[in-house]
Structure formats: structure tokens, C-alpha cells
Amino acid sequence: MDLTFLGTSAGTPTKVRNVTALALQHGNSRGWYLIDCGEGTQHQILRTRHSLVRLRAIFITHVHGDHCYGLPGLLASASMAGRKEKLYIVAPGPIKTMIEAVLLASDTRLDYELAFIDVGALGFRWEDQAVRVTTVPLSHRVPCYAYVFTENDVPKQLLTDRLEESGVEAGPVWGRLQKGENVTLEDGRLILSDEYTAIRRRPRRVVVGGDNDNPDLLREACAEAQLLVHEATYTQEVADRVGPAPQHSSAALVARFAESVGLPHLVLTHFSSRYQMMSAGGPQVSEIAVEARRYYRGNLHLAEDFATYFLNTDMSLNAPAMVGSGSFRS
Amino acid sequence: MDLTFLGTSAGTPTKVRNVTALALQHGNSRGWYLIDCGEGTQHQILRTRHSLVRLRAIFITHVHGDHCYGLPGLLASASMAGRKEKLYIVAPGPIKTMIEAVLLASDTRLDYELAFIDVGALGFRWEDQAVRVTTVPLSHRVPCYAYVFTENDVPKQLLTDRLEESGVEAGPVWGRLQKGENVTLEDGRLILSDEYTAIRRRPRRVVVGGDNDNPDLLREACAEAQLLVHEATYTQEVADRVGPAPQHSSAALVARFAESVGLPHLVLTHFSSRYQMMSAGGPQVSEIAVEARRYYRGNLHLAEDFATYFLNTDMSLNAPAMVGSGSFRS
């Protein structure tokens, strides 16, 4: 399971950070998932190994432009790239209105079907073979959601001793049982997959927050998660100066929460454009890291555009590899 | 008068060319004009000297996404950058619908006024102190327009010999006459500015085409122009293979037209993403230049992202300077 950050700036792009988007890849196929889609996301994707044809679903946390203005261009380019497969867009209701208005005004027809799913609908849940996705409502100026990705395809292990005890001979039947299928033998016995297989490890779980001023809302979702991706728009000092109206989190707020739930890995993102890289003047994004480390003793990272994190089956997180080049990086 | 290409790719961005946008700067202030605004235009602007606060007006040639999907993000960022001044958007009618739908759906309020002007309205003409802008309807799949920029502030020269003959003494009156003001002298005589000033050179004129399969429509507009910026999406061979449906121009078509009107300078742009830079495989954009040179003997350029052309008062065009860096350049 890996995550590639395609944008890590809040509100507006900077020369080195685009606005929010995150690619999550999991499963044997090259299928992947996009969480948020700020303007320029399709440009960033050009510099990764991901293809718009293999994209399985898009999840939008909320309607603010820095999280969704890249959708129309990405959808149009997917069609020009030859996509024919239905594309799921899980998003707040107004996103559907927006996309339909833009495609109509720009005389744009897609060669594939868009399947909109309202994330606010009761009992929302989306899944495919590789992942299942649930949501947590957050606290922001507009309805906003965190997406919880849990791997859906943890391989079942055959309990071969038990199969042999029961006289089920090795062969195609074993393969069908491992895939979860119940099998009726030639002698008429029904062999249940669950009785002859076991899941040997916990499924990996990643929580991707949207904009949010109350991380505590993610307590339950994070209990079984290994990794939380959450905004930390500024330090507490800046947050106090800005006031509560924007409804964003400080590094301190997120770090205290992560420590309190014993989260193994925390990646902060969505930094105010006032934070610059080391070379430029003004406040440094490293101040956010310093503040977060004061409260959180787990594995902390500050996201950068094109950083890719691998969450391994042993629940360790690989230090980020940088993919791509150029584009919004200096 | 200078032009900076912010995007030179047709349909979709590539790693080295963004979708269409062009910055035109003229006048003493740092005010400038944007023609078309494909997705990622605000990112490109970050790498130039232009500011969203000093932008005077946006001109959109037609509704296709690669010419306008960057508008919502650019408008929002202009507000976040502190813009308060009214911004003119000259565009086909559906652009207004689109922008209003997107701003509404994304809960985005701008701290300045948007003044939409329907480019299709009869007798359209826009001007400020520095330029006047007229249009030419083109031939494309949707209503599409070329914008003709003529400098509006060619300095008047005082005819000092004639002023002295008439006994108008040097002083503040001369300055007012030079600015175009008619002045009543203390002795009651009305002195007309036009009778005591002259314009010593032709105003510079640049024609910026939109997508168009019939360059001949620009014949009249180009008669008094020094520079035409026009799409040449592919070579004639590719155009023949693609067929007439997309309604684009080949290099040959535009070059023949430019030669027939004796145009001094021609800059081609909007290249199909099938054309790559020298380093990559596939057809080369240089094939478009070779084809155009076969028919056009004037000063030919193929636009690149961040190339800046200066049109001088003697009507010469400076070889392009490259501004900016990084971004969509490899």
C-alpha cells in the first residue's frame, strides 16, 4: 500500500507545492485511488507512474477549490487518454453540480461513464477488490470528510493440517477455498472456506483527513489505523493570530491527538503558503515539524510534493522515496 | 509591448507544455492582459514577473476546457493575493455560467468584482488607457474569437514650430495639448490639440487567434498588424489523417495565409500533444516549423512555454527571452 503526495499546499499553489491531492495505490493491478484533486493535479500525475486510465475512484473531502478545481481537466484528459471504464467520484453533492455545469459549458463529452456517489449519504461505504472505504465527518467551514482506507484483500492462509485431517485432498479445491469459496465435494460434503482458512495479520488501514479543526473526531477511526494523513496548516502561534474562523488545525493540535491514540505513523500536509522552503525568506515549514515533535513521539513526517510512502505488511512505513521531477518543484 | 507564452499545448498538458494561456503586457504601469486560461495558468504565472493584482482583463477565445479551466483557481488566488480592483472577463456567454456555478458550489467569495462582458455581443470593443481590443469571429466547433490588441497610447508629438507661429507660449498649455486636451487661452482663443500635435508612428497591433480552421477570416485584421499568434495544431499530413472534424489549422494553412497578407511576424502555438521535444520519441515539433517555412518567408517562431517576445516601436520583434523556470519545463 503506497501513498504519493501530489500537492501539499493550502489554498494556493506555491512554486514548490501544489494544492491538495494524494494518490493511494494498493492491489495487484495498477489500479489506484485519488483523494482530492486541486488544480494542476493532472499535471502532477504526468510525473508519476500513475495513469488516468487505471484510476479506480476519486474521493473529494470537501468543496473548497484547492481540493477540487483540478477535476474537470483531469476528467477531460482521462477521456482523451482513451479511458472507457466507469469512474467513481465520491464527493459532497455540490461537486456533481459543479462538474456537470463545467462539462456542459465547455461542450465536453467524456467517452466513459461518471458514477457520482454522495459521500454524505447515510451508511456510505465504497469498496472494490483491493480496498474498502468508509468516512468520518470532520469539522470545517463546509461539510468535510476523512476517508478511511482498509485493505480488502489480505490473503487467506489455508489450514492444511485441518484439510488433511478432514480428508480434503490437495488440488483445485484448496485453491477455491483459499479464495473464499465454499466447495461441495464429490462425496456431497460442503466444505466452508472460513473453517479451513485463517487471516494471519491485521489489514492495513490509512486515514486521510480533509480540512478539520477537531482531530479528536478521528479517534475511533484511528484506533485500528497505522497511518494518519492530516492537515497542519500552521503552528499554534500562527493559528492563534489567524483566529478560529478558517477552521484549520495547528501542528500541536494534530500531534497531541496522534500521541493520545498511540498512532504509529503521522504525515502532516496542507501547509499555509506563508511557509516557504529553507532557501526563501519568511517562516519555515520546519517550524511545523518542531512543534509536532514536541507532542508526538511516533514516526512523524511532513509531506512534500512527489514524496511516496510505503506502508508495509509488517505495518512499518518506509522513509519517503521522491518520484517525479520538475513541475511545481524548484 | 511584450507577450509571454504560459501554455502552448493543445487539449492536454505535456511535461514541457501547459495548455493555452498568453500574457500580454503594455503600458507604463505593470498592468497586463491574459488571453485564455487553461488549467495551471496560475501556476505558470508564479514563475513570471506578472501579478494577479495587476491583471487588467482576461480574454477567453472559446469555451473548450484547455482554454478556460484555469479560471476558477486563478480568480480565487487573485482574491487571496489581496486583489480589490474590478476584473474584466471578456468571454463567450457560457463562461459566466460556468464561473458562477463553480464559485457557488465551492463556497468561494471573491473580495473584488467580476465584470463579465459577452464577446459575442454586437459591436464589442474593450479598451483602457494602454490598449483597445476588438474581435474577429473564427471557425471552430464552438463560437471562437481572435482578439486584436492595438496600442492606445502612442505618444503625440507637439508641433512646436506651429505653436510658436501661432504665438502659443511654451508652458503648461503645451503639456495639456500633448495629452490630447483642447485648451482655451487667456485671450479667448480655443487651441485644438489635433491641430498642434501629430502621431509620428503607426500603433503596434497584435492579433491573437483562438482555435480556427480558416485563417483567411483574419485577413482584414492582419492588414495593419505586425504580429499574428495562431494555432498550428499539426502538420498538413497529420491534419489530413485526423480529418476536418476537430476544425484546427495545419502549419501549411496558417503559413500560406501569413505570406499572402505580408505579415512581418508569425508565432505558431497550440501544438498537439503528439509532438514531443527533441529528446523524446514520436513526431517532432520541428516538423511544424519546417512545413511553415516552406510557405512563409517572414519572421517565424514556434512558441514555447515561458518564451517572451518584445514587439518594439520600430515594429521589429526581439528573439524570445525565456522567463521563469521549472514548472512544466523538463
TrEMBL record, chains A, B:
<feature type="binding site">
    <location>
        <position position="67"/>
    </location>
    <ligand>
        <name>Zn(2+) 2</name>
    </ligand>
</feature>
<feature type="binding site">
    <location>
        <position position="62"/>
    </location>
    <ligand>
        <name>Zn(2+) 1</name>
    </ligand>
</feature>
<feature type="binding site">
    <location>
        <position position="211"/>
    </location>
    <ligand>
        <name>Zn(2+) 1</name>
    </ligand>
</feature>
<dbReference type="InterPro" id="IPR036866">
    <property type="entry name" value="RibonucZ/Hydroxyglut_hydro"/>
</dbReference>
<feature type="binding site">
    <location>
        <position position="64"/>
    </location>
    <ligand>
        <name>Zn(2+) 1</name>
    </ligand>
</feature>
<feature type="binding site">
    <location>
        <position position="140"/>
    </location>
    <ligand>
        <name>Zn(2+) 1</name>
    </ligand>
</feature>
<keyword id="KW-0378">Hydrolase</keyword>
<keyword id="KW-0819">tRNA processing</keyword>
<comment type="similarity">
    <text>Belongs to the RNase Z family.</text>
</comment>
<comment type="subunit">
    <text>Homodimer.</text>
</comment>
<comment type="function">
    <text>Zinc phosphodiesterase, which displays some tRNA 3'-processing endonuclease activity. Probably involved in tRNA maturation, by removing a 3'-trailer from precursor tRNA.</text>
</comment>
<keyword id="KW-0862">Zinc</keyword>
<dbReference type="Pfam" id="PF23023">
    <property type="entry name" value="Anti-Pycsar_Apyc1"/>
</dbReference>
<keyword id="KW-0479">Metal-binding</keyword>
<protein>
    <recommendedName>
        <fullName>Ribonuclease Z</fullName>
        <ecNumber>3.1.26.11</ecNumber>
    </recommendedName>
</protein>
<dbReference type="GO" id="GO:0008270">
    <property type="term" value="F:zinc ion binding"/>
</dbReference>
<feature type="binding site">
    <location>
        <position position="211"/>
    </location>
    <ligand>
        <name>Zn(2+) 2</name>
    </ligand>
</feature>
<feature type="binding site">
    <location>
        <position position="66"/>
    </location>
    <ligand>
        <name>Zn(2+) 2</name>
    </ligand>
</feature>
<feature type="binding site">
    <location>
        <position position="270"/>
    </location>
    <ligand>
        <name>Zn(2+) 2</name>
    </ligand>
</feature>
<feature type="active site" description="Proton acceptor">
    <location>
        <position position="66"/>
    </location>
</feature>
<dbReference type="InterPro" id="IPR013471">
    <property type="entry name" value="RNase_Z/BN"/>
</dbReference>
<dbReference type="GO" id="GO:0042781">
    <property type="term" value="F:3'-tRNA processing endoribonuclease activity"/>
</dbReference>
<keyword id="KW-0540">Nuclease</keyword>
<keyword id="KW-0255">Endonuclease</keyword>
